[in-house]
Amino acid sequence: MERKRGERAGSLSMDGIIEVMPLFVKELVAGGMAGGVAKTVVAPLERVKILFQTRKSEFQSIGLLGSFNKIAKTEGIWGFYRGNGASVARIVPYAALHFMAYEQYRRWIILGFPGVGRGPVLDLIAGSFAGGTAVLFTYPLDLVRTKLAYQVVESSKLNLKGVVHGEQFYRGIVDCFAKTYKESGIRGLYRGAAPSLFGIFPYSGLKFYFYEEIKRHVPEGHKKDVTVKLASGSVAGLLGQTFTYPLDVVRRQMQVQRLITSNTEDVKGTMATLVMIVQKQGWKQLFSGLSINYVKVVPSVAIGFTIYDTMKAFLKVPSRDEAVE
After folding, report:
1. What is the spatial distance between Cα 194 and Cα 171, in angstroms, rounded to a whole number?
2. Alpha-carbon separation of residue 147 from 69, 138, 167, 191, 324 (angstroms)
């Protein structure tokens, strides 16, 4: 009897907290939860994809399964999650800002520019600006995640102090932040941000556009089905990523240039890096890891959108039309 009373009191307390939460806070919580869960599920594939993009000679030649075996033998199970702490630390605020900003921009556009309407163009514009906003606020964490994921620990490369010969070695998120800032300042923490912004505007816009457009063609009685949300999110992520993937490769290589070039060599910008990749590594390198990314993006975007919609229902977020009125 007392347990039931306690559970009832806890439920009432939770309902009370949800009721007083501002709308934007609910959207932040739902987005952050969606991003954190989705990113952790696909972390091993993300690690291998980054190594494909930045360590072509070492990993592309042995393929996907060979790369998994190599990481497992040299670094153990936790090797698949190298850099994932920084990734989750970044993706939670990123996804929270991304989804919340999308909802906010959508409401502002409807109220400020009613002529735009409430169709796919609205989702494309709101999604694009939301992606750009989230990137600007969280980019340094993405840089740190990439640098940590780039490190490959092998016994033959370690000295007595555990430092990789010929490469900068970071012992964790804080150490990576400190060394990057000491070496290049604030500009160093935003290295590669330009291709990120060039890529995120179309990718984020297309992702929301495809997701909402696909759901519009689903019968009303099935729109809340988890399988429908998973399928819609999968297709949205697949199509959006295909159009913008080369810029992701450019961004990754810019992020690790300081680790693989001498101090005297000039560090290249976005266009110079793009040209360098095509000239030295071939145009196919611009799509290196894309097959892995397909395997990663399908569950990642699908899980992200599904958890976001589920969390919105749990937090009693009103429908978009109700929120605008």
Report:
1. 27
2. 21, 15, 11, 12, 42
**Among 233, 197, 285, 193, CA closest to 42:** 233
What the block records as the tokens of 72 is 């497992």
Which pair of structure tokens corresponds to residue 93? Answer: 């605020």
The C-alpha torsion from 21 through 305 and 52 to 246, rounded to 10°, is -100
Residues 147, 176 contacting (CB under 8 angstroms): yes
| pLDDT, tens digit, 9 for 90 and up, residues 55-64 | 766 776 677 7
CB within 8 Å of 294: residues ≥ 6 apart: 238, 241
Spacing of C-alpha 317 from chain mean position: 24
3-state SS, residue 164: strand
Give the residue from 309, 156, 317 showing the smallest Cα distance to 236. Answer: 309
Cα–Cα distance for residue pair 249/122, rounded to 1 Å: 29
Give the integer Cα–Cα distance in Å for 233 and 208.
9
304 neighbors 95 (Cβ within 8 angstroms): yes
Contact indicator for 291, 245 with CB cutoff of 8 Å:
no
Walking along the chain (325 residues) 10 residues at a time, the average pLDDT comes out as 53 75 91 91 82 71 78 84 78 92 93 82 92 90 80 49 52 86 88 81 87 85 82 85 82 72 61 86 83 78 90 87 63
Check if the beta carbon of residue 285 is closer than 8 Å to that of residue 249. yes
Q: What is the pLDDT of residues 9-26, one digit of tens each?
A: 555 577 778 888 889 999
| Distance, CA of 158 to CA of 315 (rounded, Å) | 49
pLDDT score, position 259: 61
Please give the Cα distance from 175 to 180 (Å, whole number).
8
